[in-house]
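Handout, page 2. Input:
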Amino acid sequence: MQTRADTQRLKKRKIALVPTMGYFHEGHLTLMRKGRQLGDELVVSLFVNPTQFGPDEDFETYPRDTDRDLELARKAGVDVLFMPETPFLYPDGFQTFVNLNDLPQHLCGLSRPNFFQGVATVVTKLFNIVKPHVAIFGEKDYQQLAVIRRMVKDLNLDIDIIGAETVREPDGLAMSSRNAYLAPAQRTPAISLFLALTKAKEHVAKGETDAGRVIAAATETISSHPDTVIDYITICDPNTLQDKKTIKSPVIMALAVKVGQTRLIDNMRLMPPETA
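Output:
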């Protein structure tokens, strides 16, 4: 992979990278199409990264279908599907990790304390191996995107980080590989995340400035559905992820909810009327 990357760079060809954990859906394919537009050489990495899973999380059962992913990548015009083995990225004696001080101390980082250390470390390694000029990430994982942007800036990495808009199912559910876990009866509770965000967006657009009231309304919407357990609902600064009590400028509303045993995340930008 590094040899190929060096060759592409010597030819002045622009390398675009889309990092994934596989089990491709339309959200992944949208990122690939974006990468196809932005680069001469499109590399998609497929690696289910063990260091971003907690001890009681779903690393062993995370959806996998390599043959299907290969075919979808071919159809999307991917030049290289890079699939490293775990011992290659984390050999015996591995002890070096990338940590950020503040951004992981919000949102998902509070209930998944090792998650962003794992993300930052594996993405840094992928950057060093694939040597991209540009990398594309989905905005559904908003905190992850913020962490990677901050890491790239802090470490002076010469890579453009592009965020791509969340891709949704026709009913509004944000596309995720973990949606495969949902039973048919859990679909309506899962859609409540999107409904809560949409209502919040409408309230703020009409002039609501009290973040607490917006969060309370979203909590009521989601909690009214069976089989839902809210991890967090937060309205925060788009850059620092610090909580906002008053909405006077564009903010991010982010939430994580367990529907049955499936943990779903989603977010939406809320725009006060004077900034819309």
